Amino acid sequence: MKLLEGTGVTKHFGGLAAVSKVDFHVEQGEALGLIGPNGAGKTTLFNVISAALPLKSGQIRFKGRNITGLKPHQICRLGVARTFQSVKIFNHMPVLANVILGSYYGTSSRMSSADAAREAAALVDFVGLSALQALPAKDLTLANQKRLEVARALATKPELLMLDELMAGLTHTEVGEAMELVTRIRERGITIIMIEHVMTAIMSVCERIMVLHHGAKIAEGTPKQIATSKEVIEVYLGE
Amino acid sequence: MDMSALTSRKFVVSGLLILILFAFLVTLPLSFPGYTIVLFSTIFMYVILTLGWVMFSGPTGYISLATAAFFGVGVYTSAIIGIALPLPLVIAIGGAASFCLALLVGALTLRLRGTYFIMFTFGLVELILHFVLWWEVTITGTTGRMVPTVGNTTVYYLMLILFVFLLLTAYLIKRSRRGLALQSIGEYEDAAAHTGVNVTMVKVTTFAISAFFMGAAGAIMATRWTYIDPKIAFNPLLSFMPVVMAIFGGMGQLYGPVIGAALLTYLEQFLITRFPYYYMLIFGIIMLVVILYLPEGLAGLIQKLWQRTFGRKHEVT
């Protein structure tokens, strides 16, 4: 089943087509990788899916429902969560409170504060931060801040999680830990789209990869097909 | 074990302090001269405006200079319907009028950030001031209005009740999920929205709740002034003072703005009588010192001393 489907998705910044007539879909339970050189429109695509930016034209459907034109919080409550390329955690709030916010507001049903606290604590534990849950979020390392952002996103009970460069700026060990985290998230039945520059990570985690270049989709396929695609290699390495 | 003993001791001490303070405030008109009662009404006015302002602008970082507009709407409500209706109803209507104005203004302007929002809210004060002025001169044919008085002690108790009501509201909001949402909006508004917070709704309604108290305060104060005109009701100074007082007191804790507003109002009254020509200068110097050396305001200073006494870090919410 197609969980998310976009047709003719287009976004312009002034005269520049940041994303241009892109058709895409994500299957239920799948992990889709999104790659492309800097400025290819990957984050812009995340931004239009999550409604951070309005579409110029095209349509996005989630579980068959047209979600084009909804507000960010509505998209979130329907079950689409995201993280940010530059981490946007609530620095002056304790780690646990960051996640509780997601439990409170991330779904349409109202949750009691005791339940929200319990659920958030479980998620903080899931991403491995329970020892740090009382600290202000700003005191965490970058890798842990990214894990916190994932926990906050998971607190909104998403069916689809969009990870924007989860592994950028992490050490080799931390990348391994992040990959392991993504695998465990998938075991929970959550579908994933991830933007990543760390190729080994994306090749081993994702079943399918989509390549953007200058806002257009230039290739799509299994990691093996992408790794051997002449067009993709040209884009990355030049002619 | 040691820790919980300290915590309970802390609660007992702060609970006692609050109790003594309220006992003092409730009995104050019985044992103090009229001047003190009037001074305390003025203090309450600034405390309510400051706390109301901090309720919204503190966590969100949206610096509103519309305080005078909401206050003035309350003043005018009192002046227009004060004769016809019982005072508690007049106060409620004054608050409600400001509440509605804030809903409207909030929906229009809370998408603006930073300087634009500040300028717009300040522009609102001037706009309403001049609109009312124009209306009074061309339609009503006067500039000022008389307001029926109710006596200084009544004003005092009304302000005290409004203050307690506001303090409770501010406390409950701060501790609630709305408080958490407001704080997240102040840090990363877009991240809050993508975490499911209806940011527009939370901002606009909180802005309106804070405006309610400003309007209600205006409706009460009008009865003390007996004569009002647009320049008294929409005095721009009432937009700036709450900001200054909040910075002075510190916004991290609810008692910060209360102490800041109370002390600065007293200081202002004291300096005006002693140094009528230099009081603004002295006032400015005090502000500079506070901003430079007490970035967390008086509340920050108190917390440091408190920590030293009780040895444990205050929980930050």
Describe, in short, the structure shown.
The complex is a heterodimer of chains A (239) and B (317). Chain A has 239 residues and is an alpha/beta fold.
Structural overview:
The complex is a heterodimer of chains A (239) and B (317). Chain A is 38% helix and 26% strand. With 239 residues, chain A is α/β, with parallel strands linked by helices. Chain A starts with a strand and ends with a helix. Chain A has helices at residues 42-49, 72-78, 95-105, 113-126, 142-155, 172-187, 199-205, 223-228, 230-237; strands at 2-13, 16-27, 31-35, 57-62, 65-66, 80-82, 160-164, 191-195, 208-213, 216-221. In chain A, the strands form two sheets. A six-stranded mixed β-sheet of chain A has the order 6-7-8-3-9-10, sandwiched between helices. A four-stranded antiparallel β-sheet of chain A has the order 2-1-4-5, with helices on one face. Chain A contains nine helices and ten strands. Helices cover 81% and strands 1% of the residues of chain B. Chain B contains 14 helices and two strands. Chain B has helices at residues 2-31, 34-60, 67-81, 87-109, 114-140, 152-175, 177-187, 189-194, 199-225, 230-233, 237-249, 255-274, 279-293, 297-310, and strands spanning 145-146, 227-228. Chain B has a two-stranded antiparallel ribbon with strand order 1-2. The longest helix of chain B is centred in the first third of the chain and has 30 residues, at 2-31. Chain B is globular, with a radius of gyration of 20 Å. The A-B interface holds A 50, 52, 71-73, 75-77, 81-82, 84, 88-94, 97, 100-102, 104-107, 113, 116, 136, 152-153, 155-156 and B 177, 180-181, 183-184, 187-188, 190-199, 316-317.
Brief descriptors of the model:
heterodimer, A: 239 residues, alpha/beta, 6-stranded mixed beta sheet, 4-stranded antiparallel beta sheet, B: 317 residues, two-stranded antiparallel sheet, 2 strands
